[in-house]
Amino acid sequence: MNAPVSKRDPAEEKAILDAIEVWVEKEVRPIAKKFDLADEYPHDLVEQMKELGLFGATISQEYGGLGLSAWTYAQIVIKVASAWMAPSGIFNSHLIMASAIERSGTEAQKRKWLPKMATGEFRGSLGLTEPNAGTDLQAIRTVARRDGDHYVVNGAKTWITNSMYGNGTLLLVKTDPQAQPRHKGMSMLIAEKTDGFKVVGKLKKVGYRSIDTCELSFEDYRVPAENLLGGEEGHGFQQTAGGLELGRINVAARGAGIAEGALRLALRYAQERETFGKPIWQHQAIQFKLAEMVTQVEASKRLIENAALKYDAGERCDLESSMAKFFASEAGVFCSQEAMRTFGGYSYSVEYEIERYYRDAMLMCIGEGANEVLKTVIAKQLVDRHRI
Predict the structure, then answer these.
(1) Is residue 130 within 8 Å of residue 158, measured between CB atoms?
(2) What is the pLDDT of residues 207-252, one digit of tens each?
(3) In this structure, are residues 166 and 94 in contact, taking their beta carbons and an 8 Å threshold?
(4) Is the per-residue pLDDT at 16 higher than 60?
(5) Do 316 and 310 touch, CB atoms closer than 8 A?
(6) What's residue 373's pLDDT?
(7) Strand 197-202 to strand 168-174: parallel, antiparallel, or no bridges (unpaired)?
(8) Is the confidence at residue 349, as pLDDT, over 70?
(9) How far is Cα of residue 206 from the mean position of the Cα atoms in its chain?
């Protein structure tokens, strides 16, 4: 069941979107190239995100958040990612953690954690992936053993965004490693950084730079039993799967943002650059590229809107969110590649920002479920809904 959505006035949500657009153009776009090339974490930008309420974007107003709809949130992500994709990851993982707590947590857990998360006082992440377990989450080896009023955790996680500068993570563990089927032995813990919770190091990445994606190690790390999400063991896999719909809508929005940003750069360059005595947009080859790019951008947005509106209505949207994520992420790759071809040789210079879109785009095809896996999800859901 999706978390409840506050009924905000459409004019109020539009005002929020307008404010985000101004912020993106004034604060995000001007620093993107510098911070990306230096692989430097944007601390000041994070403080601005707190002031804008982005860390509470989808958290209900009851718990101090903005209570935005998934569709409004997706539009925010598109705007941010169209200028610089990486910062959207700072609040995405955080909000998936918050969504899981609001959807599956006890009332005491909601009251304790969500207000702090809404302000950004506590910034969280999603501790799922392990060196041997990515898409196959049931293969995780991190174990939590009950010891009185605590769980003792041992294991490792990798590719965890927000883990260096964040305050904790929603940790997927095996509370019963012998359970069959395997998913019945999985639970989630709200894990704060304390003794035994070690950030091993930041991973170097070809794209998605500046963001603290790290490896984590847990050695006899003790978590209060009251931090067991929902208060009952064995529901971790379902709690994880429930958050993937919002996560896939977010990644789809990031893909659409990359696609739109790449299109914007290509469109401007095509009007400025001349060959054979005329602007290159007048050449049919470039016209074809622009036409295909803008069509994919707009189609991506409509798929995202469809998935988000179903999520907001509390309806099942694993098919719709998977389609949106698959198509929009591929659109990001396609548009960034076509923009690179439009720029020609200059695209390989870091003086032109299009190279960053190209480096960032491929991650969207991998994150929140590889597109190859999502194709099987889409096909299976399609058959389930249209059985003969």
Answers:
(1) yes
(2) 999 999 999 999 999 999 999 999 999 999 999 877 788 889 999 9
(3) yes
(4) yes
(5) yes
(6) 92
(7) unpaired
(8) yes
(9) 18
CA distances to 100, 145, 200, 220, 340 from 196, rounded to whole Å, are 24, 14, 11, 6, 45
Q: Sign (positive/negative) of CA torsion 220, 224, 226, 230?
A: negative
The residue type of 15 is A
Q: Is 368 in the active site?
A: yes
**Which pairing describes strands 143-147 and 150-161: parallel, antiparallel, or unpaired?**
antiparallel
Q: Would you state the pLDDT for residue 133? A: 81
Spatial distance between the Cα atoms of 242 and 258, rounded to a whole number of angstroms: 26
Q: How far apart are CA 260 and CA 257, in angstroms?
A: 5
pTM above 0.70, yes or no: yes
% pLDDT > 90, the chain = 89
Provide the CA 127 distance to its chain's centre, in angstroms.
13
Structure tokens belonging to residue 304: 């995202």
CA 42/CA 23 separation, integer angstroms = 14
Closest CA to 75 of 355, 308, 286, 245: 308
Q: What integer pLDDT is reported at residue 1 of this predicted model?
A: 45
Q: What's the token pair of residue 132?
A: 């041997």
Among 125, 124, 97, 230, smallest CA distance to 175 is for 230
| Helices (H), ranges, the chain | 10-23, 29-38, 43-52, 70-83, 86-104, 107-119, 236-272, 284-312, 318-343, 354-366, 371-385
Closest Cα partner for 266 from 329, 327, 337? 337
Residues sharing a CB contact under 8 Å with residue 380, sequence separation 6 or more, in sequence order: none
Q: Do 129 and 164 touch, CB atoms closer than 8 A?
A: no
Active-site entry in 226, 272, 368, 372? 368
Place of tokens 């071809």: 341
pLDDT at 282 over 70: yes
pLDDT at position 138 is 86
87-138 pLDDT, tens digit per residue, is 999 999 899 999 999 999 999 999 999 999 999 999 999 999 998 887 788 8
Tokens found for residue 332: 């990001």
Here the tokens at position 150 are 């605590």
Non-local CB neighbours of 150 within 8 Å, separated by 6+ positions: 222, 223, 224, 225
